Every structure is written in C-alpha cells, then in structure tokens.
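Internal ticket #5521
Category: modeling
Description: The requester needs a full-assembly model to guide mutagenesis choices. All entity lines are attached below as received. Residue total reported by intake: 575.
Assigned to: D.W.
Attached entities:
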Amino acid sequence: MNDSTAIEIPFHHRQSAHCETGVLSNLVSHHGLEISEAMVFGIGSGLFFGYFPFVRLNKLPLTAYRIATGGIMSRTTKRLGIRLEWQKFRSPGKAMAALDRMLEAGVPVGCRTGAYWLSYFPPRYRFHFNMHNLVAFGKNNGSYRISDPVFPDPVDCPAEDLAKARFAKGSMAPKGRMYHVAHVPGADEMDLAGAVRKGIKEVCRSMLRVPGPFIGAKGIRYLAKKVENWPAKLGDRRAALHLGQIIRMQEEIGTGGGGFRFIYAAFLQEAAPILALPVLSELSDRMTEIGDRWRDFAVIGSRICKARASESESYSALAEILRDCADREAALFADLEDAVR
Amino acid sequence: MKKDEVPQDRGFSDGVREISYAVDENGRYVLVQSQGWEPKTVANDQAWEVIEEDLREQIRLIKSGKRSPLAYHMTRNLMDIGLLSSYADLPRWRVRRHLKPKVFRRLSADLKARYAGIFGITVAQLHEVPETSEITPHE
Amino acid sequence: MNQLAKSKIDPPDLKQSLKIMIVQELNLVDVNPWEIEDDDPLFGDKFGLDSIDAVEVVFQIKAHFGVVIRDMKEGRKVLQSINTLSEFIEKHRPA
C-alpha cells in the first residue's frame, strides 16, 4: 500500500462521557442505527458497584462503579441483535496491517488500547490502564485519525504509538483487539423495549442480590465500614491515599462513579416512553439525586485529602454519605425492579 | 447536577474539556462540557505526588550507588518489576538483577537498547538520571 | 498494575479474587464473576475456555501468587475448577 495515500472515512465523532459506551454509540450510528450513549449504558447493564479489598490497582484496593470492560458492549449488541466482529493478533505488525485493510475498505474500526502510550492523552491522564476504547477512521502519512469519544474532536495518533497502545502489557492486556460492525438490525428486527427491560433487570439483580458482602448496595455499606476505620487502622497518610483512590475511581476518565449514576438517570429518562412507564422518569430524578450524593462524597473526601490533618470525625461523615447512597440505591433498584416486572 | 452547576474548575487535562451529564431547566438530561472539577483534580494531584516521592527516593538510591539508573526509568514510566519484565520479555529475577548498578553497567548493548526502546529514549539517556529538582513525572 | 494482594487471603476471598481475575484476564465479557460456581468445570461448555486460555491462567497464577504450575498435565488437574485452583495455590504459596 502506498503510504502517502490518505484515507478518511466520513465518521461522525460525537463526544461522550465514557469510552466503551461512546465508541459503541458512534460506531453503530455510523452504520445507520442511532443509539445514544445513555441507551448503550442502560441496555448493557453498565451500572454497578463493587469494592474488592484484595484486588489491587496501583497497590490500592479496587473499587468498581461499572461492570468489567467489554461487558457493556457484549450485552448491548446481543440484546439489540447487533453483530460485532472481533479479532485479536499476536503481533503489532499483523494487527496494524489488518487495521489498514479495514480502513481501505471504508470500515471504521474500534480498538481496545492501553492509555499509557497514547501520545494525544493529556499527560496527567497517562496511566497503565488497559481498558480504553477508541475508533480509527483514517490514516494520513504514518498517523491515524482517531475518534476517541472522551475528547471533543478527532485526534491524530502516530502509528508507532497506536501500535504500542494496542499491545500494551499488564492486566487486561488488549492483545491488539479490534472490532467492527458486521450487522445492524432494521427497526422491525429489533426489540428495543425487550432489550431495555433485560438491561434494567440485570442491573437490579447485581445491585440487590449478588451473594457476598462486596457487591451492590451491600458493597457500598461494606466500603462505608472500611472508610470509617481507615484513620485508626491506616494512619492519616495512608487513609488519605485510599480515599484519593476511591475518588479517582469514581470521577477520573473511564471509570466515573458519580458520573455513571447521571448517565443511568439519562437512560431511565429515555426508557420511560419506550416502556410506556412514566414512573421511570421519577426514578430518573431519584437517580440524579443519588449521583449528587456521590459527588458530595468526592467533595468532602477531597478536602480531607488536601488538608491531611487529623480529621477523624470527617471519615465518619464520609461513611454516613456512603450509607445514605447505599440506602437510596437499594430502595431505587427495588422500585425499578418492581416497575419493569 | 444541573446544567449551570457543571464545574469549570482547575482541571488537569491541559484544557481538554470532558463531557458531563446534567439536567436542564425542564429536568431533561443534556451533555455539557466541563473544564475540570476541584475534587477530581485534588485526587489526581495526590496520585502524582506519590509518584514524585517515589522518583525522589529512586534517585537518592541511585546516587548513593544502591540502584542502577534503570530504577529511575522504570519508576518514571510508572512500571514495577512485573510490568517491566512483561515489556522486556524477561523473567522478573533478571530485571531485578538489572536494578543493581554493577550488573546494569555490564548489560549487553542489545538489552540496553531493548530497555531504551520500551521507554522511548536513547541508550545514552538510559544512563542518565535527573537532579531531584528537575523531576517532571507527568511530562 | 492490577494485582491480587500478596498478603494472606482467606479461602472465600481467594476464590472470589480468582473469579475476578479469570473474567478480567480472559476477557469473559459475558460472565459476571459471581456467576462462576466454585465447582463449575472451567474448561467445559459453560465458559468456553480452551488450551490457550489455560496457558494464560498459568501465567497469571505465577504473576499474582508466585505459584508455578509445572506442565499441562499438572495444569489439567489444578485448573479443573475454582476449588481445585484455590486449593493448589493455598498449598504452594511461598510463605
């Protein structure tokens, strides 16, 4: 192939809050099925909570506000009858050649990548985080045109950096994984209401009924108990580090906890007319309030981190906010489950 | 969160605005760009401070002859021995040995080039370690 | 880097860690970790794991726990289920 041939597929880049949902929404829309990020998130049962003290990320316990990477895409496509074709590769050479072939054929391609090697990322975001998704839709002079949904506009990424990112090592290594849309159902083939229902039911189940203390509303309460004891158990410094990690998992790019609650509320608003259930609009309002409560946690938590003073009482205040979130989420998901029964 | 409450605080994305979901005057969700949010920035700052402290410690150990420059570059690239050994395609025990000054000095040109390639630097730079006052961990 | 805690983990927590690790590292996007029963055959029809996945699991066990599965013969026995895997790790963990 002639390297100086520029390819640019007319791809509509729309900025989104989250990479996996944004990529799927944009890719599927490109193929004629308009579906918002919020709908992808809801149908894909993205909302979640889990606190895993024995699984470490950056040497600190893992807090998850969404289901495992790839889970949203897999569930949404299955439930809507969208077919994605996936490939993974053993070598960067093969992976990039395969990408080029798809682009030449006019097909935009989703790629799983690590974030660390993406040169267009703001430096303070560049961590070894392998759960990122982006769309490649063009190539020009050794550089790829990328629609990275969390960015306002398309960006350029040198081939070498994209290759490194696609083969980033470490946990959940992407192994050059790429995917494209092979089939999009027609409006009459698709059971949108059914998909929305299934999406909602799974979230209710995981937030209310998974056995064990770490997951769902119970998991939030479990975390509350831990948070309360951090100053005594860990000392102020390490307690602040643990707290900072929670806030990062909650609010930083790719994981957004408080943000995910708002996206889910937006989903419930869209779902209301689809299921002809006006009560979903009220539940949406309650979810918005819950998202605000998570943000309160981040505000107070960050003040503790910054002051780093002996504010033992405030860890108690944080635990109370978490318990409030747990209670509200438990009540909301119970009502939601009732509504879609 | 309401539309007019979407924060435009000090961020850490070099001006790149991210999307927030917020409700408009009619309570309907809309997408609004945000420059940054103080709590989020504070948490990210804290993470980078920890890295910077670690870098200072590595530089101190290197300058006192206890570790090789590899320790600095590994830490600078936010890697631990496990991750670096994956990238280098070497067993961990070998990477651990390369953190010793004597062993590092005697490394083959090939291995040095391999490490340099992983970090995106030259072999000459692989031997260099900045002064603690010059650290910019996130550049 | 994602790591499983190196300190002593109680057996139920170890089993849950293994389930999370398997779902994440083998990219089992359709499976929630809590849907894996402790005695489910890992390499049967339920999860569709194959010999390449087995190699990956062996690698991850070594990386996370420092425990080595010597060959695929040993692997076949150890990787039967979450129960057999966690028993093996408990027995062979470096102190």
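Resolution: model delivered.
Comment from assignee: The mean pLDDT of chain C is 83.
Ticket closed.
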